[in-house]
From TrEMBL:
<dbReference type="InterPro" id="IPR006363">
    <property type="entry name" value="Cbl_synth_CobJ/CibH_dom"/>
</dbReference>
<dbReference type="InterPro" id="IPR051810">
    <property type="entry name" value="Precorrin_MeTrfase"/>
</dbReference>
<keyword id="KW-0808">Transferase</keyword>
<dbReference type="GO" id="GO:0008168">
    <property type="term" value="F:methyltransferase activity"/>
</dbReference>
<dbReference type="InterPro" id="IPR000878">
    <property type="entry name" value="4pyrrol_Mease"/>
</dbReference>
<keyword id="KW-0489">Methyltransferase</keyword>
<dbReference type="InterPro" id="IPR014776">
    <property type="entry name" value="4pyrrole_Mease_sub2"/>
</dbReference>
<keyword id="KW-0169">Cobalamin biosynthesis</keyword>
<feature type="domain" description="Tetrapyrrole methylase">
    <location>
        <begin position="7"/>
        <end position="212"/>
    </location>
</feature>
<comment type="pathway">
    <text>Cofactor biosynthesis; adenosylcobalamin biosynthesis.</text>
</comment>
<dbReference type="GO" id="GO:0032259">
    <property type="term" value="P:methylation"/>
</dbReference>
<dbReference type="Pfam" id="PF00590">
    <property type="entry name" value="TP_methylase"/>
</dbReference>
<keyword id="KW-0949">S-adenosyl-L-methionine</keyword>
<dbReference type="InterPro" id="IPR014777">
    <property type="entry name" value="4pyrrole_Mease_sub1"/>
</dbReference>
<dbReference type="InterPro" id="IPR035996">
    <property type="entry name" value="4pyrrol_Methylase_sf"/>
</dbReference>
<protein>
    <submittedName>
        <fullName>Precorrin-3 methyltransferase</fullName>
    </submittedName>
</protein>
Length: 250
């Protein structure tokens, strides 16, 4: 049988949110490549050889997957959420573009998954119900000035926003700077949603008015959503429902 690479998204955590298409790819695969905790989640297939690696070696991991597929292996590259959202799919294509020319002829596919912002949005209502954007707040792969510019322009355009990688131990100051920019640029008290460990047993959802937010409310297990100026909160017994209306008056 000839080799292939399928870059699969295993969703935000709940096994019920792994698509049947991804389950089928994992069942057929000979090898699984990815960040250690994600590869461990697909470890239930006894025929699968696991190649777990650290989070910072995405291009090496991609080359390894492509080399194995060239040798006839059926390789799944595992990402959390969706593989096309701040994850392995772009890294594999970068390796294809700059790597061995024969890799361009390999069977390489991306199998989508449920990304953290959509699982978080569903957990509290529909805050991304109108136009929105997603921004990775890590400045490991881009300069902070560009992040700051995008935050200001997204606020000016009145997008709802989703923030991935908000705050890590090695970058504790970034989210503080992001909040300062957002408080100034938005100027109001729209809701910010801190969704931690979404779809897992220890999921928490906190809805906080923007001007009352503090940097310690987020960590690397949190995806943060910010409403637009139109976003509404429905108070009720139990958790409130947050939504952004489908229309904006012209
Ligand atoms: C490198 S990005 C990967 C995103 C992933 N490809 C996706 O589509 O969800 C990692 C970031 O995703 C977010 N994230 C992933 N899974 C999450 C979950 N279950 N709950 C909350 N945030 C999550 C966090 O912001 C985390 O820092």
């Amino acid at each position: 049988m000839s080799g292939w690479v399928q870059i699969v998204g295993i969703g935000p955590g709940d096994d019920a949110l792994v698509t049947p298409q991804v389950q089928a790819a994992v069942a057929e695969a000979t090898d699984a490549v990815g960040y250690i905790p994600y590869v461990e989640r697909v470890a239930q297939n006894p025929n699968l050889t696991l190649h777990a690696s650290d989070n910072r070696v995405e291009i090496d991991r991609s080359r390894h997957a492509l080399e194995m597929a060239s040798q006839g292996k059926r390789v799944v590259v595992v990402s959390s959420g969706d593989p096309g959202v701040f994850a392995m799919a772009a890294a594999v294509f970068e390796a294809v573009e700059h790597g061995d020319p024969t890799w361009r002829d390999l069977d390489v596919r991306v199998l989508p998954g449920i990304t953290a912002m959509l699982a978080a949005s569903a957990a509290c209502g529909a805050p991304l119900g109108h136009d929105f954007c997603a921004i990775n707040l890590s400045d490991n792969l881009k300069p902070w000035d560009l992040i700051d510019k995008r935050l200001r322009l997204a606020a000016e355009a009145d997008f709802a926003m989703a923030f991935y990688n908000p705050r890590s131990k090695s970058r504790p100051e970034g989210f503080e700077k992001a909040l300062k920019t957002l408080k100034e640029s938005c100027g109001d008290n729209r809701p910010m949603i801190f969704a931690r460990n979404v779809s897992r047993a220890d999921q928490t959802i906190k809805i906080v008015p923007l001007q009352e937010t503090t940097p310690d409310m987020a960590d690397m297990r949190t995806v943060v959503l910010l409403g637009s100026s139109q976003t509404r909160i429905i108070e009720r017994n139990g958790a409130p429902m947050v939504y952004t209306p489908r229309s904006v008056d012209g």
